[in-house]
Specification:
CATH class of the largest domain: Alpha Beta
Distance between the termini: 33 Å
Strand content: 25-35%
Keywords: Lipid-binding
Largest sheet: 6 strands, mixed
Strand order of the largest sheet: 10-9-8-13-11-12
Shape: globular
CATH architecture of the largest domain: 2-Layer Sandwich
Structural class: alpha/beta
Radius of gyration: 19 Å
CATH topology of the largest domain: Hypothetical Protein Tm841, Chain: A,domain 3
GO molecular function: lipid binding
Protein name: DegV family protein
Mean pLDDT: 89
Organism: Paenisporosarcina antarctica
Low-confidence stretches: none
Order of helices and strands: EHEEEHEHEHEHHEHHEEHEHEHE
Number of domains: 2
Helix content: 40-55%
Pfam family, one: DegV
Number of helices: 11
């Protein structure tokens, strides 16, 4: 039996470093992005840089897909050979079926598992995994870890200003009328994740006003936030600008820059910028 009796599972939308994944033997289930008839495993067959270059060159927007049931089952079968328990933390179930797939795989294989819908993705999802692993390192039991991480989804925050409304409109996030009006008036929309779903929070005139709006959200939770990332989709210049502004305004918070991986980047669109954090 492996020295660590808890196996960790997440998916490729989590922003975990390769070093962290290797050190803690985390099983990362890749989601898929599909261009035409070709499916690519996110962060395996196609990394963010190559994805956004390809996205800029195609006329038909890609689709996304969850892992097949068979892939999930094989992972859980392997885990069962070496571990007593599984804790799986996945991207919001409203974006992909990874969460439901993990539940089904656990039932199919008879693994003692707790599967958590993070109700979010990207940086906050990665931070949930990091906090869960830290609890194990502190000597907490499986049940103790589960009781703590159940509270984490309510603390995740993700705000985005999409570079384009086309993909969001196709996904039903904004209506056709909202898309036309926002485009004609050169307005930016601010989306927020609420209970796992992206909802239209505000409409603003510029990126500057978008920053101001997100700062308002951050200020309401400032006492419970120590780390914030500026999220972007192939828009490093704008993200760096945001980070510079925010660091001056909030010197006690650690700010990072995180690029959206291919699957969420497909839905948000190139040029997207936003903020994300996981409250304490």
């Amino acid at each position: 039996m492996n020295q660590s009796k808890i196996a960790w599972v997440t998916d490729s939308t989590a922003t975990l470093s390769p070093e962290f994944i290797k050190q803690h033997h985390i099983y990362v289930v890749p989601l898929y992005v599909i261009f035409g008839e070709t499916a690519y495993r996110e962060n395996v067959d196609i990394k963010s840089e190559a994805f956004y270059k390809k996205l800029a060159s195609v006329k038909e927007l890609p689709k996304t897909s969850q892992p097949s049931p068979g892939e999930m089952i094989e992972i859980f079968k392997e885990i069962k050979k070496n571990y007593d328990h599984v804790i799986a933390i996945h991207v919001t179930g409203s974006l992909t079926g990874a969460y439901s797939g993990a539940i089904s795989a656990a039932k199919e294989t008879g693994v003692d598992a707790f599967v958590l819908d993070s109700q979010i993705g990207s940086f906050p999802l990665g931070k949930m995994v990091e906090r869960a692993v830290a609890l194990e390192q502190q000597g907490k039991t499986f049940d103790e870890i589960v009781s703590v991480i159940k509270t984490l989804p309510a603390k995740g925050r993700l705000f985005l200003t999409p570079g384009s409304l086309e993909q969001l409109h196709k996904g039903g996030r904004v209506t056709g009328t909202q898309t036309v009006i926002a485009t004609l008036l050169n307005m930016k929309v601010v989306l927020k994740f609420d209970k796992g779903k992206a909802i239209l929070s505000d409409k603003v005139r510029s990126h500057k006003r978008a920053i101001a709006k997100m700062v308002e959200y951050l200020e309401t939770e400032i006492d419970h936030v120590s780390e914030v990332t500026v999220i972007h989709a192939d828009n490093l210049t704008e993200a760096t600008h945001w980070k510079s502004i925010l660091q001056k305004q909030f010197p006690d918070i650690a700010f990072y820059i995180t690029e959206l991986s291919p699957v969420p980047g497909t839905h948000a669109g190139r040029g997207t910028v936003g903020l994300a954090w996981l409250g304490e």
